[in-house]
Write a structure and sequence with these properties.
With 379 residues, the protein is α/β, with parallel strands linked by helices. It folds into 4 domains: 45 residues; 60 residues; 156 residues, Ribonuclease H-like superfamily/Ribonuclease H (Nucleotidyltransferase, domain 5, 2-Layer Sandwich); 66 residues, no CATH class. Helix 5 packs across helix 6. The radius of gyration is 34 Å and the shape is rod-shaped.
Length: 379
């Protein structure tokens, strides 16, 4: 400050400027710049100023920042994840190969600067949980229902299933209430497209594990198919964490749409999201891969009693008045006491299993050359 003040107050008629600058290690241009700033601003012009450039060379262009903000708003409006990683995916898709896009860290800074993100360090988890993942596709399916409401406020449930390894969403079923039969139907729907799992993982709800005197629940129903059942530890939601976290993703997407007036409309919404989630949406839990692509490229597992990728048919019929169900070309007698219940018949190879109300009613071996299977000739 004293040198600047001396420069500002110097009498040029008696001062040797070159010698003064040499003695104080400054240039003549700097000398006269300080005098001009003092003449224009007074003593305020003598204060030290930042040496930072007026324009940062590495600063993200405003047009790119605006595009980041646009994608942020678009993803939120559509009910999708709108974090930096999701925005980065969208920018990469529209930029094409060879075009450099901002990193996730840069996108985070842009969103913070624009007021879309408020850092909250206090929300960081107090500890890092141990992570575990199945090694093969269809090795383990996590299943869990979650509550939802229709447009008129009627409470319903959505049964979600997630493949532990690839994060594929094999099935979701909108039902009035999650029962053993509804859970079996959800797994059967997923198996029609993705195959049967080696085991399933669920919490301790009674419709999963049931009482032996009342059919034994889903675990007992799937045991004849060679599908093992595992239950999570009580009060430990991290065990089923993948499907628990998926509930949030699904509900976020549903909340961005008009409420469904009935179960059929809600199921149509679930089917729409399933296509997007499985085949287009990158998943952060699997290194930003697309679940269906990872499932295709991953080794498969399956029930212990059948070869992997064994052809399976799932047939849904109603028990006729004479107590039989038709499963393709086969007429299988189950008893008139079950009329007019809905039945699910699962045929894998030559093994057939008939389920009613989530309970195994009949197990038999079918012959392509034989059509009728009365109860007295059960095999």
């Amino acid at each position: 400050m004293s040198v600047r003040l001396a420069i500002a107050q110097a009498d040029l008629s008696t001062l040797n400027v070159s010698e003064f600058c040499r003695d104080h290690g400054i240039s003549r241009d700097r000398f006269y710049a300080i005098r001009r700033r003092f003449d224009a601003e007074g003593e305020a012009g003598l204060e030290p100023r930042s040496r930072a450039p007026h324009q940062v060379a590495s600063r993200t262009p405003a047009a790119v920042e605006d595009r980041v903000v646009w994608w942020r708003k678009k993803l939120v409006e559509d009910g999708n994840d709108a974090g930096p990683a999701s925005i980065w995916d969208q920018l990469c898709d529209e930029a094409g190969p060879g075009v450099v896009v901002p990193s996730e860290a840069t996108i985070w800074r842009i969103l913070t600067r624009r007021g879309f993100i408020v850092p909250q360090p206090s929300k960081a988890p107090p500890r890092v949980w141990r992570r575990f993942t199945a090694e093969r596709a269809n090795e383990c399916w996590q299943i869990d229902p979650t509550p939802w409401e229709l447009a008129d406020g009627t409470g319903v449930e959505i049964i979600n299933i997630i493949d532990d390894c690839t994060r594929v969403w094999p099935a979701a079923l909108a039902v009035a209430s999650a029962t053993t039969a509804a859970c079996l139907e959800a797994i059967a729907r997923g198996a029609e497209q993705w195959g049967w799992p080696e085991r399933f993982l669920a919490d301790n709800a009674r419709y999963f594990h049931g009482h032996p005197d009342h059919g034994g629940g889903l675990a007992a129903a799937l045991a004849p198919l060679g599908i093992d059942a595992r239950r999570s530890r009580p009060y430990h939601p991290q065990t089923c964490g993948k499907v628990e976290r998926f509930h949030q993703t699904l509900k976020q997407w549903l909340e961005a749409r008009d409420p469904a007036p009935d179960l059929e409309t809600l199921q149509a919404q679930l089917n729409e999201f399933a296509d997007h989630y499985n085949h287009y949406r990158r998943h952060r839990g699997i290194d930003r891969q697309i679940p269906a692509q990872l499932w295709t490229n991953t080794a498969k597992s399956g029930p212990t009693t059948y070869p992997i990728n064994a052809p399976t048919r799932v047939l849904r019929t109603t028990v006729s008045a004479d107590g039989a169900v038709w499963a393709g070309p086969y007429r299988i007698a189950v008893g008139i006491r079950h009329h007019p219940a809905n039945a699910i018949t699962i045929i894998t190879g030559t093994a057939a299993h008939v389920f009613i109300g989530g309970r195994l009613i009949r197990k038999l071996t079918v012959d392509p050359d034989r059509q009728n299977y009365p109860q007295r000739a059960r095999t």
